[in-house]
Specification:
This protein is of the alpha/beta class and 221 residues long. Helix content is 52%, strand content 12%. The protein has ten helices and six strands; from the N terminus they run E-H-E-H-E-H-E-H-E-H-E-H-H-H-H-H. Helix 4 links the parallel strand 4 and strand 5.
């Protein structure tokens, strides 16, 4: 099992709860911080002392307060830390539920595990730590199903543009004007209708309103 873990979590009660979870796993060396800048400083210090951390558990979003921070969120923290320690494994522990955002954490930021703050999250965190320790990425079954749904249709930049315009209140019949003004093709009304119908059919939604709501829930727009 991991020997040295760093917790970065700005809410004191949750930070303490994660510490208790790690205590139950008999992790011998656990440090914790409330700010991203402090987390990076601890990682750098551990590297200098030749006692690097094995795992980072971080929140995704951090509330601003009277302590100005250079690093604003968990994504940026992971990026900065891996400049110094590329091999450090990372689990994100967050209330974020949008599948598009969660999926991007794995694909873009190469996290090793994601646990959503919810009922039984302590059990999920233990499972995540055990999986990541044996080099397996971890995502709970319900979130896997949501991400699978997200990836069942691969959105192109053109698709996202169409749905984004609908979400902004632009009527479908007026979308061609925007596309033409921005030199985006295809820009005929018939091609736009065909594309939107294809997306709705693939995602099994029946209206533009449902399509917009679906994409917002998944974090696509």
């Amino acid at each position: 099992m991991f020997k040295k873990i760093l917790i970065a979590e700005d809410h004191e009660s949750i930070n303490f709860s994660v510490q208790k979870t790690l205590e139950e796993l008999n992790i011998p060396n656990v440090d914790y911080v409330y700010y991203c800048d402090d987390a990076l400083a601890k990682v750098k210090k551990a590297i200098r002392e030749n006692e690097p951390y094995d795992l980072l558990i971080t929140d995704l979003y951090y509330e601003e307060d009277h302590h100005p921070q250079n690093i604003k969120d968990g994504k940026e923290l992971i990026q900065e830390i891996r400049k110094d320690q590329p091999s450090l494994k990372a689990i994100v522990f967050s209330a974020e539920h949008k599948s598009g955002i969660i999926d991007s954490l794995f694909t873009e930021y190469k996290i090793n595990g994601y646990v959503r703050k919810a009922r039984n999250d302590s059990k999920e965190l233990k499972k995540a730590i055990a999986s990541v320790y044996v080099n397996e990425n971890y995502l709970s079954l319900d979130l896997k199903q949501e991400v699978k749904k997200l990836n069942s249709y691969e959105f192109s930049p053109y698709d996202i543009t169409l749905v984004s315009l609908l979400s902004q209140g632009v009527l479908q019949k007026n979308i061609p004007v925007y596309l033409q003004n921005n030199n985006i093709k295809p820009n005929s009304l018939s091609s736009i209708e065909k594309k939107l119908n294809t997306i709705k059919e693939e995602l099994q939604v029946s209206s533009n309103e449902q399509l917009v709501a679906f994409c917002k829930d998944l974090g696509i727009i």
